[in-house]
Design brief:
heterodimer, A: about 160 residues, alpha+beta, Arc Repressor Mutant, subunit A, Glutaredoxin, 7 helices, 4 strands, about 10% strand, B: alpha/beta, Rossmann fold, de novo design (two linked rop proteins), five-stranded mixed β-sheet, 17 helices, globular
């Protein structure tokens, strides 16, 4: 199994950065997930072979890291922080608003495959709380109204869903 | 947008180049970049270590250990390669400062890593950035590439005969990985389970080799110290607490933001003068002084200098510089619950007191906040927390226990007000009781 050319180039380059192949594992899993959408059996088998680990060892690592998923997700994963700074400034309201607007609970995906929702821990936006990450993009100083604008922005982006 | 703010009391050392485009290497060089490392290449390693030690620079990630002293633990001779590891896994709730360094001054981190390498005899540095900070990882990777292209990294840097490589490494979501030994485990491609200490990383670290692990802000502070001198840096703060640091002000404040202030700056002044005080005419109830792992301070305890030693004397910690301000509309039981939910979620699961303790405490606090608590629960919450302290491989257990103990001790009345099925006095009418969803 091959990934995109940029992925392969990066993988080859990063392999020269460490004395062991195993060190490639965590960043590679995330880059692979970015491309494929989730870490399915084929991807896990491929990466395990490349870093010379068993599939079980790779799955053990996947289960530790909260950004990694073995299940398909929406094209846009809305990650709402409700940790202390966001809690104090309205993060829970943003989460409730997203649930209502999208019609889903945490760790679920909208039927059109566009959005998933996740309640997350501190994302490092405390001074600009409440904050949300959509995939890797930060959206900060939010209100429910601004959150609506953020969701509309991603709705407009359209594109194929991964489902 | 992670906007920049300013205040006249700021003393800009680590944030001097913020907002000036210094992620670009030419701009960085214009702004005194890569001068310190050139100077360091001409210094004796021991003098470098002494300079950093005497500056009073202490770890800005949270533990506050003297940086130069840590460097001095690296053995002079080593059969295994030595490494510098930048801890950019910023995940302590309330903390958002390394983010700004990575965004606005990534070369300062690279330069700090290089100087550390020269000081201890390491030739490889890793800059580990948390997985969620993808745009910052891209900025850092570009900066590293620029440095290589100029011959500032790689073989024979600056024509000095000294080789030094710097590599970016990314995480994938795990607070515990910010703990230095778990950070190494993660970089080695494993679950982030901490190692027992001793041996300490400076002696046995990455792949068994001596490894210096420093927070990103700590490393970014090193070039200014080399250029400006230990004495200058030390004098910016109180004795043994030299320099300035980035404070992340958040919560119920009029002017939240990241401000660079001298060590020892008064907390009350920070909240009211710098942070602009509490909005909506509300009153201060509590402050988290240095990230969620630190014991909370009440409104009567905020007249304290924000440095490592003063806060320790006051029964708390300077920690990561995450100052979270809590007003009197907040339920402290709920606050304790949210904090405990975080630690339970992030516990790596290795040590029984932490794994089982945080789970029990989250369940107890959930039941308690929902009105199902009995009187002995209050003492049990304190007792359970105290029994985690000092009984784990890593400080995450302590981090869960300390704020909890402080909340039970200092806000006991609020716990009592939740007894006998009484509804939480702070919940807005009509809002459904939220249970923490972190599973």
């Amino acid at each position: 199994m091959r990934f995109s050319e940029p992925f392969e180039r990066r993988f080859r380059e990063m392999a020269t950065h460490y004395p062991t192949k195993r060190s490639l594992l965590v960043p590679t899993l995330l880059y692979a997930q970015d491309e494929v959408g989730f870490l399915g059996d084929e991807v896990i088998a491929e990466i395990a072979e490349r870093v010379e680990l068993t599939e079980l060892e790779v799955r053990n690592v996947i289960s530790y890291y909260s950004m990694l998923t073995t299940k398909p997700r929406g094209k846009y994963n809305i990650q709402v922080c409700t940790n202390i700074a966001c809690l104090l400034t309205g993060g829970e309201e943003i989460l409730d608003h997203c649930r209502m607007r999208l019609g889903i609970q945490e760790k679920q995906t909208t039927p059109d495959g566009r959005f998933s929702l996740e309640e997350v821990e501190c994302i490092g936006a405390c001074s600009w709380a409440p904050a949300v990450q959509v995939n890797y993009d930060f959206h900060e100083n939010l209100t429910p109204e601004k959150m609506d604008q953020v969701l509309d922005q991603y709705k407009k982006k359209g594109g194929e869903s991964r489902l | 947008m992670a906007d920049l703010v300013s205040h006249p009391d700021e003393v800009k050392v680590v944030s001097k180049r913020f907002g000036l485009g210094a992620a670009d290497i030419d701009r960085y060089i214009e702004l005194d970049g890569y001068k310190a490392v050139r100077k360091a290449l001409g210094m004796q390693p021991d003098s470098l270590i002494t300079e950093v030690k005497d500056s009073g620079l202490r770890g800005r990630g949270g533990a506050g250990f003297n940086t130069g002293l840590k460097w001095s633990f690296v053995p002079k001779q080593s059969t295994k390669p030595k490494y510098i590891l930048c801890n950019g896994d910023e995940s302590e709730p309330g903390t958002c400062k390394d983010r700004l360094i990575f965004e606005h001054d990534p070369h300062a981190v690279i330069e700090g890593v290089m100087i550390a390498g020269i000081a201890v005899g390491a030739h490889i540095g890793y800059i580990y950035i948390r997985g969620e900070y993808r745009y910052l990882s891209e900025i850092m990777q570009r900066a590293i590439g620029e440095a290589y292209a100029r011959g500032f990294l790689g073989k024979n840097i600056f024509g000095s005969g000294f080789d030094f490589d710097v590599y970016w490494h990314g995480g994938a979501g795990a607070y515990e990985v910010g703990e230095e030994s778990a950070l190494m485990e993660s970089l080695e491609g494993k679950r982030g389970i901490p190692r027992i200490r001793p041996p300490f990383p400076a002696v046995v670290g990455l792949w068994g080799g001596p490894t210096v692990i420093n927070n990103a802000e700590t490393l970014a502070s090193v070039p200014p110290i080399i250029l400006g001198g230990a004495e200058w840096y030390a004098k910016l703060g109180p004795p043994k607490n030299g320099g300035t640091r980035l404070f992340c002000l958040s919560g119920h404040l009029n002017r939240p933001g990241v401000y660079e202030l001298p060590m020892g700056y008064n907390l009350k002044k920070m909240i009211y003068d710098v942070g602009g005080g509490i909005p909506k005419g509300r009153a201060l109830k509590a402050v988290v002084p240095g990230g969620s792992s630190t014991p909370l301070l009440t409104r009567d305890e905020i007249d304290v200098p924000m440095d490592f030693d003063s806060l320790m004397k006051a029964g708390s910690m300077l920690g990561s510089g995450g100052v979270v301000v809590v007003d009197d509309s907040t339920c402290m039981v709920k606050f304790a619950l949210r904090i405990m939910s975080f630690y339970r979620h992030e516990s790596c699961g290795w040590c029984i007191p932490c794994r089982e303790g945080t789970d029990w405490l989250q369940k107890t606090l959930t039941r308690f906040h929902a009105g199902g608590g009995v009187k002995k629960d209050i003492d049990n919450i304190q007792y359970l927390s105290e029994n985690i302290l000092g009984r784990t491989f890593c400080p995450l257990g302590d981090a869960a226990a300390m704020p909890t103990i402080s909340i039970v001790k200092k806000f006991r009345k609020e716990f009592e007000d939740h007894l006998e099925g009484k509804p939480c006095p702070f919940e807005k009418a009509g809002l459904l009781e939220r249970l923490p969803v972190m599973a």
